Amino acid sequence: MNHLSATRRVALSLCAVSALALTAGLPQTAHADLAGETVEFVIPFSESGGSARWANFFAPLLSEALDGNPTTVVVYRPGAGSTAGANWFQENQGDNDGTLIFGTSGSTQFPYLLRDPRVRYEYRDWIPVLASGTGGVVYLPADLGARFDGDMDDLQDEFFIFGSQGATTLDLVPLLAFRMLGLQVEPVFGIEGRGDGRLMFERGEANIDYQTSSAYIASVQPLVDQGLAVPVMSWGILDDDGNIVRDPTFPDIPTFAEICEATAGCETEGTAWEAWRAFFVSGFAAQKLVYLPGGTAPEVVALYEEALAEILARPDFDEISAAELGVYPQMIGEAAVVAHEAAITVSDEARQFVLDWLREDYGVTLE
Amino acid sequence: MDILNVALPALGEALTLLFQPQQLMFLCAGVLLGLSIGVLPGLGGIAGLSLVLPFMFGMDPVAGLALMVGLIAVIPTSDTFSSVLLGIPGSSASQATVLDGFPLARKGEAGRALAAAFVSSLYGGLFGAMILTCIIFVARPLILAFGLPEMMMITILGMSMVAILAGRVPLKGVIACGLGLLLGTIGSAPAGGSLRMSTYDIPYLVDGFSLVIVGLGIYAIPEVVSLLRQDKPIAGAGKLGRGWLHGLRDWWNNKWLSTKCAAIGVVVGVIPGLGGSVVDWIAYGYAVQSTKDREKFGQGDIRGVIAPESSNNAKEGGGLVPTLIFGIPGSGSMAVFLGGLALLGMSPGPAMIRQDLDITYTIVWSLALANVIGAGLCVLLSNQIAKLTTIRFTLLAPFLFMMIAFAAFQSRQSLGDLVALVGIGLIGILLRRFDFSRPAFLIGFVLSHQAEQFTNMATQIASARFRRSFEAGLDYIVSPITVTILVLTVLSIVIGIRQSKNIRENIETYTGTKRAPFLFMLVVTAYVGVAIVDAATISRFGDKVFPLTVGIATMIACLVLLVRMMRRPETDDAFIDLESGGADAEAPHGLWRTLSWFLGLLILSGLFGLVIALAIFFVTFFRLRARLSWLSAVLYAAAGIGFILFLANVLGRDFPPGLLQEYTNLPWPLR
C-alpha cells in the first residue's frame, strides 16, 4: 500500500505546486458587505462563445466595483441549448445574499418566448440588473453582392444556402428576415456555431451568412477588405423611443428595416414584422441580461445597481468595452428593467405566427 | 521567399518571447498541472483547461498561452500511466493504448511499455509541433478544400476502422458499431431537435450521453470489475520486469511506425471535429494493418503502444491548426482552449496568423518544450509509478471506483451521470463477456454525431445544387479528395476484414451453453427493434433518417447472427462466453456480486450524496471484501476521501448530491 500512497503524494504535490503557482499574486482585499464572499456568476453556456467572453469581461469589473470586493468567478452550466442552466437557476436561487448571479442570452430567451417544453424557468421571478445589446450583419459573396443595389428585388430568383444552428436558435431572426424579403434560402441545419457558418461561406458551400458584431469585425471584415464578401444589411439598434436605427458600429450598412421598405412585398408593419421585431429585441437589442434571484433583498439589488453604474461610469469603459463587446448600449437600473420586459415579451399572435412558420417551412415543432 | 522573410524571424521572436523566466515558469506550471490531470483516470484536457480558465482573463498573452499549451501538450503523455497500469484510459486519447499496454503490464513489463509510450509521445509531440510550424503557412487553402462531403468521407473512413477491430466474428463487430451509433443518436436530434429514445420527462436523456461516461462505462468498469473478481495484483508475477531501456530500444526499432502514426495523428487532428478520441484507434488500426506478424496484437505487442501514443501527442499540433487558423475547435479540449484565447484577448483566425505571427509561434515553441519536459518527467517517474501494478487489486479498486464516479460526475453534474455510468458499464461488461468488439462500439458512438451531421448537411447542399444543375451537384460531391478517401475506405475495409481475426481483445475464448449468448442477442435485437419503431414515429425527415437507416442495418446483422446461432453448434465463435472458462470463470468472486458493490455505492450516493456514500462504501468494502482490520479500513477510507476532497477543492468542483441534500443544508463538501 505504501507504493500507492507514494504515488498519491507525488500527484498531490504536483497539484499543490501547480495550484500555488496559479494562485500566487491574486489580490486578497477585504472590507464591508460582500467582503470575503465569492460571487458565482453562472452562465448556461460553455467556456467558448460570446457569453463566456461577456461574463468574463464583467466579472473582474464587478469584483472591483462591488462593496467589499468579493471574488467573482464565472461558472459554466451548459446543456440543452442553455435551458438546462436556466432551469438550474430557477431551482437553486441561492441564499439571496448577492453571491449568486445569472447571465442569460438570446438562446435562453427564445425557448421561453416559444414556450419550449424544456423551459421550466420563469424570467418574471428574477430581478434584472444589466442588459447588454449587440448587433448582426448579413453578407453575400462578391458575385451576388454586385447584384445588390439597396433592395432584394434582383436576387429573388437566386438559390441561397445558409448554414444554420437551428430554426429556433438566434438564427430565427435572419431566417425570418430572409423569408420576409422573399429570398429563396435553403437553411442547412446542424452547424455547431456561427463560426461554422462563416467557414461554409468561405468554402463556397453557403452563399449567404450573418455574424454578430464582434465576430463580423474579427473574421468577416478581412474578407470584405479582400473583396470576397459584401455586407448588405445590419439588424440595427433600438433608439430611446424604441425605433430601429442604424447600428453605430456599422453606420454605412443599411438596416434590415431600410432594405425591407425598399424591397417589393416586404412590409415593416403587420404580424410578420411584429414577430421579427420581438425576436430581434430578445435576440440582439437586449441579448444578454444579468439577473439576481427573485428573493434578493432590495439593499443587495441596490449594491449591484451602484456597482454597475460605477462600472459604466469608468472613464475607460468605452475603450475597454469596445474591444470586447463592440459599441452597444449597456442598460442598467430602470432601462435594464425595460429591456428585460421587451426581451421576454411577444404577443400571442406573433408567437403563433412564428410557430406556424417553423412548422410549415422547416417541420420544426416544439411539443 | 515568404517563409524566409517572415516565418523565420517570427520563429526567433517567438523564442525570445517564451524564454523569459516568467513565461517559462508558467509553462512549467502548465506541464505539472497537465501531468497531474492526465495521471488521473478519465480526466483529460477539458477538465484541465477548465481549471485554469478562471485565471486567464487579463493575463499576459504569452504567459497564458504557455500555461494552456503546456497543459494540453502533456496530457496525452501522462494519461498513459492509467491506460497501461490500470487498464483504464487516462483520457479519451489513449483508449487504444489499453489494448496492448495493459496486457504488457499484466505480464510484468509495465516499465517497458511506459518507456516506449513516453518516447513515442515525445516524438509525436515534437513532430506535431514541427508540422504545425509549416502548416500555419501553407494550410489555409488546404483546409478550405475540406468541405462537408470531404468531412463526411473522413468520418466514414474513421468508421471503416471498425472492420479491423471487429474481432473474430465480423458480424458481431458490425452489431457493436451499430449499437454505438444508436447510443449516439439518443437525445434531441442535432438538426431539428426531435427527440429520439428520450422524453422531456427525463431531461438527462435529452442532451444525450457524454463521451467521458461512455468511455469509462465501456472500458473502465468491465476491466475493474473483472480484475476485482480475481483479487490478484495486476502484474501476476509481482515484478516490473524489463525496464525503460528496453522500451527505448523498442521505440528505436519501430521509429518508422512511430513517424507514420505521428503523421496520422497530425492529419486527423487537423480535420475539425474528428478530434482526439478516434486518432488513437486509427493509428492502432494502421499499425495492425501495416505489419506482417500481427498475432500478438491485443496480447501485449509493444507496437500497439507505440502507435497510439505517437499519434495522440502529434494530434495536439494538428488540432491547433484549424483552431488557430479558423477558430474552429478540432476537439472538445480545443473548444475550451479557444475560450481561453478569447479571454486573453486574442481572436484566432487568419488575422491572428497575419498580424501576430510571433505570438502564434510561441504556441509552437510551448508545444515542443512542454513535450520535452513532460516526457522527461514521466520517464523519471515511470519506474516508481509502475510499482502500482504489484499492489493487490482489491485495495486499489475502491479508489478507482471513486475516481471513475468523480470523473463521470464532471460531465453533467447530476446524479444521472452516475446512473448512466453504471448502465453503460453493464453494457460494457456484457459486450466483453460475449466478445463483442468494444472499440467498434466506441467508434460508432464517437462518430455517430458527426456522421449524421455531415451526411445530413452534405445531402442538403448537394440536393440544392443538383436542383440547379447536374454538373454543379456532381462537382460538389466528386472532388479529388473525396475520391481518394473513398478508395482508402474501401482498401481499409477489405484489408481490415481479412486481418481482423488477428486482433483479439480477449486472448483465450471459451464457449459454453447457447442460452446466455442467445438471450443477450435477443435483448439486443429487441432494443434495436424499439429504436427503429421510435425513429419511424419521428415526423421530421432529417431527424429520423439516420437512426432509421442505422437501426435497420443493425437489425439485419442481428437477425443474420441469430440465424447463425440457431444453426451452428454451441462450440461456434458466435457463442463465446467468457464466463464459461478461463480467468473469469475461475475467479473467486461472482460477476454480479462484484458489480453490486458498485451498485451499492450508486444507491448510497443517491441517498446521502457521494462523500458520505464513499465513507460508508470504503469502510465496508475494506472490512468485508478486502478483510482488513477495522483500523486499516478506516485509515484507507480516510486517505481516499482526503484525496478526493483535496482534488475537488483544487478543481473547484462539487460532489453528486443525494436525497439527504434535498432536505438539509450541509456545508461543502457534503452539500
From TrEMBL, chain A:
InterPro entries per UniProt: BUG (IPR005064), Bug_dom1 (IPR042100), TAT_signal (IPR006311)
Q: Which domain of life is it from?
A: Bacteria
**Which UniProt keywords are listed?**
Signal
Using the record, list the residue span of the signal peptide; answer none if the entry has no such feature.
1-32
| Family to which the UniProt record says this protein belongs | Belongs to the UPF0065 (bug) family.
Name the record gives this protein: Tricarboxylate transporter
Q: Which organism is it from?
A: Roseicyclus persicicus
Automatic annotation (TrEMBL), chain B:
Please give the start and end residues of each transmembrane region. 24-44, 51-75, 114-138, 144-166, 173-192, 204-222, 261-284, 324-347, 359-382, 388-408, 415-434, 476-497, 518-539, 545-563, 597-622, 628-651
Instruction: Give the source's domain of life in one word.
Output: Bacteria
Task: Kindly state which keywords UniProt assigns to this record, in alphabetical order.
Answer: Membrane, Transmembrane, Transmembrane helix
A Pfam family annotated for this chain is TctA
Boundaries of every DUF112 domain copy:
24-442
InterPro entries assigned? DUF112_TM (IPR002823)
Protein name (Swiss-Prot/TrEMBL)? Tripartite tricarboxylate transporter permease
